[in-house]
Amino acid sequence: MLSVAEAQARILADLIPTGPELVPVADSWGRIAAADIAARLDNPPADVSAMDGYAVRAGDCAPGGALSLVGESPAGHPFPGRVGPGETVRIYTGSIVPDGADAILIQENAQEDGGIVTVAVPPGAGQHIRRRGQDFAVDQIVVPAGRALTARDIGLAAAANHAWVTVRRRPVVAILSTGDEIALPGDPIAPGGIANSNTPMLAALVRACGGVPVMLPSARDTVSDIARLAHGIETADLLLTAGGASVGRYDLVQQGLERIGLTVDFWKIAMRPGKPLMHGRIGRVPVLGLPGNPVAALVCGLIFALPAIRALAGHAERSLPEDVAILGGDLPENDRRADYLRATLSRAPDGSLLATAFSRQDSAMLHTLARSQALILRPPHAPPARAGEPCRVVRLDTLAI
């Protein structure tokens, strides 16, 4: 059995990011920048006022001194002249500072009467002025390639004068669930059957990773049906299967996909839940075969499919971030497989993060998974751990998954 780290490395080794496409900046949330986004202008484009008040020469200002008001500089309508000795110009936040002025006398520190402005508290030179390019300068990289664009990044790109941005095409991920026992949610369920939770769950995971899910019809437990439904995936960037990847009599995914050209890289990993994980290729399309138990399918999806989809999307951050917590209960010695224990999170009296594993870790208990806020990571052959000891966790509560 491969280790989790080796399996991740082999899955990611030969993935090629999707190509670039142009999208309106307002529609680019969550998309991955395919190239650095550089500023097309200075921001601010000139020295501007940071406050409402009066543009002055700091050297002309003294407590009780008087200045002659010679004009105003509203936003978008710069004062065309120059501020000379003993003069001032009314100015507003964001307005261009007129030539000759080197400070802003804020309106709270001045009194205007009949064209004369009396100084109460004089400003220092340069005070309340935002200098040209103070935020960013022309040609400066404001959003790096590989970043998933947030609302903040979109505002920044727009301020840098980009109406369109170059992003990676969303990876297309085909999803194939297998099993005679599964039925579409809402359809009649035959004796011994279950509702298909894997396909919609994995589709949601794909969307959360920035991909486009294509949900194929469920395949029966026959080699020919698996081959038939998987045929024509050439337009996909990744094929995810759920179920049928183990060694049982009806675990036929590998045989079915081999009929249409599957070459297998590996199919077992030292992990719980999720030992039967298959990886290979059909032509140029990578294939990731997830376990059929829904908890194992999603946990393996988080650990292996999420980094793969992010890699295809050109995302700079691929793996899930880990955190350190304190165990809320004792844990037994681990065997040769890495454990990903579903757990709740809370705060200890001292404010530290407390992770408490559920007492039952069955790989078919979706209710437990839905209530989980973290996965406690236990390496192979880990010794017994006691409550209060540190542990590594993957935070689920901070993911939109």
From TrEMBL:
GO terms for cellular component: cytosol. It catalyses: adenylyl-molybdopterin + molybdate = Mo-molybdopterin + AMP + H(+). Pathway: Cofactor biosynthesis; molybdopterin biosynthesis. Its EC number is 2.10.1.1. Its cofactor is Mg(2+). GO terms for biological process: Mo-molybdopterin cofactor biosynthetic process. The keyword Transferase applies. It is an enzyme of class 2 (transferase). Residues 174-311 form the MoaB/Mog domain. GO terms for molecular function: metal ion binding; molybdopterin molybdotransferase activity. InterPro entries: MoaB/Mog-like_dom_sf, MoaB/Mog_dom, MoeA-like, MoeA_C_domain_IV, MoeA_C_domain_IV_sf, MoeA_linker/N, MoeA_linker/N_sf. Keywords: Magnesium, Metal-binding, Molybdenum, Molybdenum cofactor biosynthesis, Transferase. Catalyzes the insertion of molybdate into adenylated molybdopterin with the concomitant release of AMP. Belongs to the MoeA family. This is Molybdopterin molybdenumtransferase. It comes from Gluconacetobacter tumulicola.
